Amino acid sequence: MTKKRNRTRPALSLQQRLNKFTQDARAAAKKLPAGTERHTLLQKARDGEAAAEMERLLSPPGPQHQK
After folding, report:
1. Are the C-beta atoms of residues 23 and 44 closer than 8 Å to each other?
2. For residue 45, what are the domain limits?
3. Over the stretch 13-42, which tens digit does the pLDDT of each residue have?
4. Separation of alpha carbons 8 and 6, rounded Å
């Protein structure tokens, strides 16, 4: 017998999750001194912003209907 997949939907939209990720990464980077770890967090924040922008450009205009 096979196990059923968990098919729950995320509570937030992709755009909201990407924005939260970038805010969290920037907040964590502000608490760190200059160095490799801070640079990595800031790079992840920039990557998240780029992903959010691509998602915004590729998504269809108008209101989205949740299923």
Report:
1. no
2. 14-57
3. 999 999 999 999 999 999 999 999 999 999
4. 6
